[in-house]
Design a protein that fits this description.
Pfam families: OsmC
CATH superfamily of the largest domain: K homology (KH) domain
CATH topology of the largest domain: GMP Synthetase, Chain A, domain 3
Order of helices and strands: EEEHEEHHE
Protein name: OsmC family protein
Organism: Craterilacuibacter sinensis
Number of domains: 2
Number of strands: 6
CATH class of the largest domain: Alpha Beta
């Protein structure tokens, strides 16, 4: 995997992924930025949610669960001192579908967290990561 990052101005950077997609990252005005894009740590958090969601949906599909919608609400805490790493991350999955089985959703989240999601397993080396979920009937 390759990527490229170029400094734009102040604390603003333009990243280009190996797949050719561009992302602007910037800081808050009080930190010298112009608020033109998300912060790098925000991208790390949502990237992790994307990674685990991909796994969960794939596992549920293989389990023949009829999912019609899925989203993840995240809440994270960071260390007070440098390096301000994530110390706690909570993922709340909301899965909508028809006749979804609670044990299948729970299993999919557990497999992602323990076996498949590289991002969350990596972050789990320094942060306490928790998960919960709710099922909504469509």
């Amino acid at each position: 995997m390759k990527a490229r990052l170029k400094w734009v101005d102040g604390v603003c950077f333009m990243a280009e992924t190996g797949s050719g997609h561009a992302v602007v990252m910037d800081g808050a005005p009080e930190g010298g930025g112009r608020n033109l894009g998300p912060r790098p740590m925000e991208l790390l958090l949502v990237g992790t949610a994307g990674c685990t969601s991909y796994d969960v949906l794939s596992i549920l599909k293989k389990s023949r669960q009829e999912v019609t919608d899925c989203w993840v609400e995240m809440e994270a805490e960071r260390a007070e001192t440098e390096p301000k790493i994530f110390t706690k991350i909570h993922f709340h999955f909301v899965v909508t579908g028809r006749g979804l089985k609670s044990d299948a959703v729970e299993r999919a989240i557990r497999l992602s967290a323990e076996k498949y999601c590289s991002a969350s397993i990596m972050l789990g080396k320094s942060a306490d990561i928790t998960h919960d979920f709710e099922i909504r009937e469509d």
